[in-house]
Design a protein that fits this description.
Structural class: alpha+beta
Largest sheet: 5 strands, antiparallel
Number of strands: 12
Helix content: 25-40%
Radius of gyration: 17 Å
CATH architecture: 4-Layer Sandwich
Strand content: 25-35%
Oligomer: single chain
CATH topology: Phosphatase 2c, domain 1
């Protein structure tokens, strides 16, 4: 059975601290019976219930994914498509229940999942999903989605979200992956060349390579949280910051 080792962290950005607002990012990771799942979300700063939207989307995407796998649907891309739709329905239900417009819960969504025969990913909005195969450098799966203006992106609450979300199958040769919200883009992307800054990912992944599956996860997550909250990072990225790093372990 293939297993995955991973760690993650989510910290409130410097700009949110100055304004006295809560963190609007959310993250959810899980590894069960040879399946690995990770999702990150960034609630829209202009949305009144952004932090609820991001939490709802990652929790319900993860729940729906493993429920789908549990029913015997083993195609990872189909399971992701099902889980994304379920997450949007969960947000819509919450909006109706609370009497709030759907846009009050606006949030991005980035998802990666791997199973016995490969993986798949999905993204709507900005942020980055990165992957690496053995003996290759890091590459992105989808370039961050932008709207008509540079500071505008797409959200799962958009009317046409299910038509604009991007999906991709991922090779079973992928051995490492990372997901991040847009706050970390200045540290991880070269915008002009549309490439990733590989040393950023290598530096983060060094912590994970060779570590036990679960025994060091909390320690590594705590270290990552401290790094993301450090002055040198906050000077370059003042938005909320979320990062997941995951590595496939040797098949058992």
């Amino acid at each position: 059975m293939i297993d995955w080792s991973y760690f993650s962290a989510c910290v409130t950005g410097a700009s949110h601290d100055k304004l006295g607002t809560v963190c609007q990012d959310a993250v959810r990771c899980a590894s069960e019976d040879g399946w690995f799942f990770a999702a990150v979300s960034d609630g829209a700063g202009s949305a009144k219930r952004a932090e609820e939207g991001s939490c709802l989307v990652v929790e319900n995407t993860c729940l729906a994914f493993f429920e789908c796998i549990g029913t015997g649907r083993r195609d990872v891309l189909e399971a992701i498509q099902h889980s994304v739709q379920a997450a949007r329905e969960a947000i819509a239900a919450k909006a109706e229940e609370s009497g709030s417009p759907l846009r009050d819960f606006a949030a991005t969504l980035l998802v990666v999942a791997f199973g016995p025969s490969g993986g798949a990913s999905a993204q709507i909005g900005d942020g980055v999903i990165a992957i690496r195969q053995a003996n290759t450098t890091w590459g992105w799966v989808f370039w961050p989605q932008r709207g008509e203006y540079a500071n505008v992106t797409r959200f799962i609450t958009d009317e046409d979200a299910l038509e604009t979300i991007e999906y991709s199958r991922l090779s079973p040769e992928v051995i490492e992956t990372a997901l991040m919200t847009d706050g970390l883009e200045p540290l991880a992307l070269h915008y002009e060349s549309r490439t990733l800054h590989a040393p950023f990912f290598e530096g983060m992944m060094t912590e994970l390579r060779g570590q036990p599956l679960a025994g060091e996860r909390q320690l590594l997550s705590d270290r990552l949280k401290a790094f993301l909250g450090s002055q040198r990072v906050r000077e370059r990225a003042d938005d909320d910051l979320t990062l997941v790093m995951a590595r496939r372990l040797t098949e058992k």
